[in-house]
Amino acid sequence: MSPRRPQRTSGPFSYLDEPEYRANFVEAGLADPRCTLDRSALERLATEVINLKPLIATSGTKKTGIVITGFKTVHEVPTEHGTLYELRVKQPGLASAINQFNIRFAYDVAHSAAVPTPRVVPVTTPEGGQRAVLEVEFESEKALTEHLTFIEGRLTAAENARNYDLKADLAVSGQDERATYHVVRYRVGDQVWDTTAATAGSNRTRHRHDLFGLQPAAGLLGLPQQVLGGPAGQRWRNPADWRDRFTAQLNKYSGVDPEDIEVPLDDPEKAEEALEERRWATRAADALQVAITDAAFVIGYVPKDGTRPDFDAALASTNLRTHLRGPLDFSGTNQAMASGRKLVDGAYADTAITELEHAVLTGATPAAFLDDDPREAVVKLVRLVDRVVFPSDTPSLRRTTKLLVEPSPSQLRVEHAKTRGEIRSALLTAAVGGVDLPAAAMDTPHKSLVGKGIDTTGLSAAELIAAAASAEPSTDRDAARTELAHLAVPGLVNGKVLLGPYGSTGDRRAVSTKLAAARITDDGIALFVEAIDTFAEVMQRRAGREVMLRPQGAVEGRLRRVANGAAVAIDTAKPAHSEWFTTHWPPVQDGDSGGGAGTASDLSPSEEWEAKFKDITGLIEKAKKSLTTLDKHFEAMCPLVGPGRDMSADEREGWGDKLEELRSIAQSAGEHLRKLRYRPTVTEATTGGINEFLFGTEQAG
């Protein structure tokens, strides 16, 4: 029996809305033209949202009859693949599920032979349109569980590489940033059910569930009934069957100190009951700050005219922008853009840039007007932004430091380089007219270069490409290739390739590392040129100019290009994507990449940790034996070196030097031991391999 009114306990944790409001919510979605969810998806969504009544738009009166007409407020989110519609609401903290299929995991899953990869398909309407639902199919629930285990491991591995504790932050401060979810329909054998998965917010969702004492699978597979005293081996799939019961327990123990619950030592049965009460009190205390969170649910999708409907790609696009923190807000309140305007206005006041350049950087004039030649316009734009944000001449260095309130060049730190990178991305984005260039995916210079500025060859676009493509190695060719790679980055990032080390991506190498690997190959130089051309086309279209499409055979065609306002592939058999930059580089043979097997790229930090961790048990035993032997040796030596031992000055000096060497080693070992003791980490969750992760579905922890 569900503890509905009047039996349910009140408290900070919200119950589901009454069935009649959930039914009205479903009817509102079916009536709203912006919502493309079907009835089953809306019924699931109604269990993920609270305070439904204010969301529902109606017409008429009680006298004339009240008619549900849709939702009151729906937010429009444009992407290059079409328009998404979001319903922004309040959500119970224990709702929704982590996402297994977003862009951050595609590379890892596709390259893991041990992990089942599901079939992912869009769901169409009877009229042939596309619903805001992704359907995935697994052969069995075991395959689904294995897949979810892998994703949990990747999330944990990425968390271990970060310098903050998200779970602790949520417990203390709550969740300030809105997570976004979309509907996923699972087909496993003859079972079909819907859930809401994180478009952006898998880590937050997972840690919220952990604070509630739930396994990540609860949002997706359902809750094991034994968690609430039911039979083992069965689970509730529908949140409406268990959410209120779970919430009632949280409210019952909210405000109760777990230590105040006494555990009798002489009665095992009552002791177990008391321990269970302590667990509920701990859950209520831990989850209090995330009892209710802000969330956005994707309820509709309308493909862009003239493009292939691709709901999955539209979601990936928004997820990418969210995780890379792109400079999407060009208002004066945006810190990166506000700082950028300071630098631009300061440079213009000092006559360091022209009136046209000032207009371009503030977004008043399209960047394509910097030069009649499209390639040259790209080169001039990137160099212009670099000149303002990363100047190399002394007067400009002084002006930039003063306007950004930075310390002297020798005192610049990583955070200063990061801030400059965000400003650079904001200015480039504004200059082109809103193209999304996330800062984390760009090639921000190392902090040592921030105080020196970015050098340039000064060559024109044609000269630079010719020098970079030269068959003869030289310092001039190296310089040209380095700059060409830098100039190509906006085009690469806009094409959603060359992703930086962000979020839960398995490969965490820096953009500069990937560019350095690319520029030593002829293949890489060809791609850089195409990236510049692709970005040039975007700039020309933003300026309202007619764009002449490049001949099919003009380039190898790894990047998407702009055609009739849509991004299409020149050669679908050989597209550019992040994998091209992160796995294997083709060897250069006689000036031709040849498409060979290539050489392996560097290990990511998680992979390096895995390699070092393999023999850790044996190493610890060896260390213990060595330290024990050394300790016993010193113990035996102490009486021999004490008072009465007649040592010469040379002997004393030599003995002291040897002891000093040993002392520094012992101190270093002690410091590392202290760090390891007070830095607990789930080391078995660093590889993402399916056999490395324990996945408990039988009961919540």
What report would you give on this structure?
- The relative contact order is 0.10.
- Helix 13 packs antiparallel against helix 15 (414-432).
- The chain is an alpha+beta fold and 701 residues long.
- The strands form five sheets. Strands 3, 4, 5, 6, 7, 8 and 11 form a seven-stranded mixed β-sheet that branches. A two-stranded antiparallel sheet has the order 1-2.
- The chain contains 24 helices and 15 strands.
Termini, distance in Å? 24 Å
Strand fraction equals 5-15%
Radius of gyration: 30 Å
Can you give the mean pLDDT?
Answer: 77
Main sheet overview: 7 strands, mixed
Which parts are unreliable, with pLDDT below 50 for 5 consecutive residues or more?
A: 320-333, 502-507, 551-557, 560-574, 582-607, 679-701
User: How would you describe the shape?
Assistant: flat
Total beta strands: 15
The number of helices is 24
Helix content: 40-55%
> Which structural category fits the helices and strands?
alpha+beta
Topology diagram in text:
Elements (H helix, E strand, L loop, with lengths): L18 H13 L7 H7 L10 E4 L7 E5 L3 E5 L2 E11 L10 H8 L8 E6 L5 E9 L2 H20 L5 H8 L5 E10 L2 E10 L1 H10 L6 H4 L1 E2 L10 E2 L6 H11 L14 H19 L5 E12 L7 H14 L10 H15 L5 H7 L12 H16 L4 H10 L10 H19 L14 H4 L10 H8 L6 H20 L16 H8 L3 H21 L17 E4 L2 E4 L8 H5 L1 E2 L13 E2 L4 H9 L2 H26 L7 H29 L24
Parallel strand pairs: 6-7, 7-11
Antiparallel strand pairs: 1-2, 3-4, 4-11, 5-6, 7-8, 9-10, 12-13, 14-15
Helix pairs in contact: 5-6, 8-9, 11-14, 11-15, 13-15, 13-20, 17-18, 18-20
